[in-house]
Amino acid sequence: MQLTHEEQNKKQRLFLILGAFFIANAIVAEFIGAKIFSVEKTLGILPLNLTIFGLENQNLNMTCGVLLWPAVFIMTDIINEYFGQKGVRFFSYLGSILIAYAFVGVFTAMKTTPADWWIMQQNNGETINMDKAYNAVFGQGLLIIVASISAFLLGQLVDVYLFHWIKKRTGHKYIWLRSTGSTVVSQLIDTFVVLGIAFYLPGKMTGQQFIVTALVSYTYKFLAAVLVTPVLYLVHNWVDSYLGKNLSSHLQADAMHDRV
């Protein structure tokens, strides 16, 4: 099918928009992930105080990076649907490079000498050393950076492979199956890789803590993948409406055979 000039523009704009949201969410998630939050307290409920694998008083404490994960999940699967494995791999590699670039930028900023007047600031009547606060928030360890990038890239590559493996066996039906199925497997790998490299291997977590923390984080991602499925369908329908029936079918057919 020979695309018209208007169709080619729509295709390029869609690719740019999806990729921009994908990369923006991936980079922001890396930086907000420095904060660990209590799910129970955020929701205003009592701590669960669970006993998991012999560890008592375990509650739902997670990195803020998971807040944007559903958006990455949706963008990944929509790019998969219309631009195939090549599209997702392109943005996965580009995203990894830009995450590393962002960390270099932050590291450079941390090494600059702060202005004298900026260091001590008043905030709600409390004096804060802004330089120490800045470095504490943004100064992630090298292993955490390596773990984040490795887990992100590996998870995305596994996701795109499984997505198309399922799609080739089910056709264009069952969007929820290929999207959720590929995600629950890839995020299992992502979760254990990032925690393993960043915390278990350097001895910051015991084996029990590693397993429990990984399972809690993965459970959230699993439930999120299921709960955002209706949103995935809404975005899919919007893209179909934007592209038009003919262009949408053409892109999905090309994506299936990696001709994009």
Question: Could you explain how this protein is built, in words?
Answer:
By secondary structure, the protein is mainly alpha-helical. The protein has one domain (5-256). The chain contains 10 helices and 6 strands, in the order αβαβββααββαααααα. It has helices at 5-32, 39-43, 69-110, 116-119, 130-138, 142-170, 175-200, 207-227, 229-243, 245-256, and strands spanning 36-38, 50-52, 55-58, 61-63, 120-123, 126-129. The strands form 3 sheets. The protein has a two-stranded antiparallel sheet. Strands 2-3 form a two-stranded antiparallel sheet. Strands 5-6 form a two-stranded antiparallel ribbon. Helix 7 (175-200) packs antiparallel against helix 8. The protein is globular and about 65 Å long. The two termini are 12 Å apart.
Question: Could you name the key traits of this structure?
Answer:
260 residues, two-stranded antiparallel ribbon, 10 helices, 6 strands
What is the structure about, briefly put?
This protein has 260 residues and is mostly helical. 73% of the residues lie in helices and 8% in strands. The chain has one domain (5-256).
Gyration radius (Cα, Å) is 21 Å
- Quote the beta fraction: 5-15%
In N-to-C order, the SSE pattern is HEHEEEHHEEHHHHHH
- Kindly state the percentage of residues in helix: over 70%
Neighbour order of strands in the largest sheet = 1-4
Mean of pLDDT: 87
Total beta strand runs? 6
Please tell me what the overall shape is. Answer: globular
Number of structurally distinct domains: 1
User: Whole-Å distance between the termini?
Assistant: 12 Å
Question: How would you classify the helix and strand content by structural class?
Answer: mainly alpha
Main beta-sheet annotation? 2 strands, antiparallel
* Number of helical segments with 4 or more residues: 10
Point out poorly predicted stretches: none
